[in-house]
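User: Sequence in, structure out. Go.
Assistant: Echoing your sequence, followed by the structure tokens.
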Amino acid sequence: MTVAGVAGLQIDFSEGSDIKQEVKKIGIPRRILGKTGVEVTALILGGVSGMIQKPTAAFDPAELANAALDAGINYFDTAPSYGAGQSEINYGVVLAKRRNEVFLATKTGNRTYDGAMREVEESLKRLQTDHLDLLQVHSVTYNEDFTLWNKPDGMMKAFYKLRDEKVTRFIGVTGHESAEAMNQAIDRFEFDTILTTFNPVPRRKPFRELVLPNAIRKNMGVIAMKIMGGGEGALAAGNPPVKPANGNWYWDVTPHQADASTLIRYVLGMPVSCADIGMKSLKELEINVAAARDMNPLNRKEQIKLENLMM
């Protein structure tokens, strides 16, 4: 049974595959988000892509978010920097009526106490809610100065205060530039979750081999991003590939592509809690929900085959 095409090639996963021959009408599987103990859907709606768009007659991001909830997704991820607040505004339209259906995560990129408190207050207004489920440090960088985080005027003081006051239930950290920096962050601070990058390309290997085991040892909820390669989904067949000369850390560059379903199955074959994917249409939502709901994750042999093709 052939399930994926990569750069004109066919990946045959028939040997040892557990793929069901018939589509079953079942819900999206749920997994425990690490030490939080919360059950979240294996597929979550990311706050970039379609959710950063302003509503038009042709496309309404709130309709996409409502459709995601109707399809069974129970986790929304966003950030104030996504579309200069537009992502949170779009989610807010839905949350105003359906807040109790959603595990809600946003972020702050500010590294000071005052800045983080102010940014969270603004996020809550846009999201039309008075509480979060998860507040995350946004985008750990290669040259992150971790000594600033825990100072009296540092942002961790704001995180602890907001958690104590139940403005947020849990705290986490995100980043996709440096596996070493991500490990430093989770070694220095007691976060509940980590949102970082997992896909088959070689430069994401340190995240798979170094960060993932460390996070699992700490019983963290592991949230996967950049499943489609970042940007406009350059790893997914049918999307424009990124030229190797680009070199931007945000996009993953490879001469090969795989279909979206295979990339989702690849990540969900890892010991992660969920896959964070931005979607820009109801059709993309339908495809991704089907991949999470109806197809078994790739086993390790299948994962290695895809990794070898993506080199």
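User: And one key feature?
Assistant: Residues 1-25 have pLDDT under 50 and may be disordered.
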